[in-house]
């Protein structure tokens, strides 16, 4: 069977579960080979099993400055190229603004801005050299960067000043890089998700924690906010991870070659902030 992404190599961060896992699976289903990155090595193994031999796992904390470079190196070592980069890894550390700590702010900036920045910078030589080689041979080949943001970043959300500021910063990076890398035919876009059913949006009692050093950060949202969420979404419910992955996938295919420097909202029609 031929797939639209045959011969393409992708990196997907945060691929152990949720949107990242669904994205890795969808890219692989359509022919790509995927370097899957996540903090959670055990869960990541399950993702790679889903890919049926079309992927490898790199376990590590992406906020470690060495890890983004390791990921790019692994893509080259394993597959000899890199064509698609999906910056998806993330979590939330909510709190009301007047009680928010510096640590809460910097943690969100680290994972949602600094990590994509470092990964893109590590990938830059590989992506740019490939683009220049193609151009020298008279070939126009599009490569793809998709940065995962949130309508919390584009519209605001109560309790997420840190998260929305970090996602909004990633929008700025997306738009600037689109201008710098456009001549190289590297599409740089962002996808702004609304409500997607993952552990980040599970009821607080069910969501579990994100373990960061000796800290356990509560994930999820209050049950009452969850119940109200559907009413704000014209499609009447949150997205499944597979539906969210569809939004990322579109921006990884040739059909989006002229979509560039955009924030594509994938939120079931939701057009206001989340609370
Ligand atoms: N779920 C939603 O409603 C929603 C809405 C808007 C945006 N998003 C964004 O989508 C992305 C994926 O979220 P999800 O809902 O699938 O959450 P998830 O918790 O299901 O998956 C996120 C993955 O990222 C990994 N990760 C987090 N920090 C990491 C680090 N330092 N190093 C390596 N891996 C790390 C986690 O281990 C986890 O496996 C995030 O960037 C999130 O902010 C989600």
UniProtKB/TrEMBL annotation:
UniProt-listed PROSITE patterns: ADH_SHORT
One Pfam family recorded for the sequence: adh_short_C2
GO terms, molecular function: oxidoreductase activity, acting on the CH-OH group of donors, NAD or NADP as acceptor; quinone binding
Keyword flag Hydrolase: no
UniProt-listed GO biological process terms: fatty acid biosynthetic process
Keyword Oxidoreductase set for record: yes
Cited InterPro entries: NAD(P)-bd_dom_sf, Sc_DH/Rdtase_CS, SDR_fam
Family, per entry: Belongs to the short-chain dehydrogenases/reductases (SDR) family.
Official protein name in the record: Beta-ketoacyl-ACP reductase
Organism of derivation: Phytohabitans rumicis
């Amino acid at each position: 069977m031929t797939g639209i992404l045959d011969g393409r190599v992708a990196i997907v961060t945060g691929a152990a579960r949720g949107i990242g896992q669904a994205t890795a699976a969808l890219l692989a289903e359509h022919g790509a080979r995927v370097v899957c990155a996540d903090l959670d090595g055990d869960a990541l193994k399950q993702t790679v099993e889903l890919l049926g031999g079309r992927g490898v796992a790199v376990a590590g904390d992406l906020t470690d400055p060495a890890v983004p470079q390791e990921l790019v190196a692994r893509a080259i070592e394993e597959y000899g190229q890199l064509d698609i980069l999906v910056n998806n890894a993330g979590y939330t550390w909510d709190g009301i603004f007047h009680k928010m700590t510096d640590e809460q702010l910097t943690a969100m900036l680290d994972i949602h801005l600094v990590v994509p920045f470092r990964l893109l910078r590590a990938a830059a030589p590989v992506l740019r050299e490939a683009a220049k080689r193609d151009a020298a041979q008279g070939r126009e080949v599009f490569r793809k960067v998709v940065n995962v943001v949130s309508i919390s970043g584009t519209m605001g959300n109560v309790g997420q000043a840190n998260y929305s500021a970090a996602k909004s910063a990633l929008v700025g990076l997306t738009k600037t890089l689109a201008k710098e890398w456009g001549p190289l035919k590297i599409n740089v876009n962002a996808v702004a998700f609304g409500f997607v059913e993952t552990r980040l949006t599970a009821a607080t009692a069910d969501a579990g924690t994100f373990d960061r050093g000796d800290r356990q950060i509560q994930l999820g949202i209050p049950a009452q906010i969850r119940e109200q969420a559907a009413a704000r979404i014209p499609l009447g419910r949150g997205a499944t991870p597979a539906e969210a992955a569809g939004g990322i996938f579109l921006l990884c295919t040739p059909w989006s070659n002229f979509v560039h420097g955009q924030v594509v909202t994938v939120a079931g029609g939701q057009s206001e902030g989340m609370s």
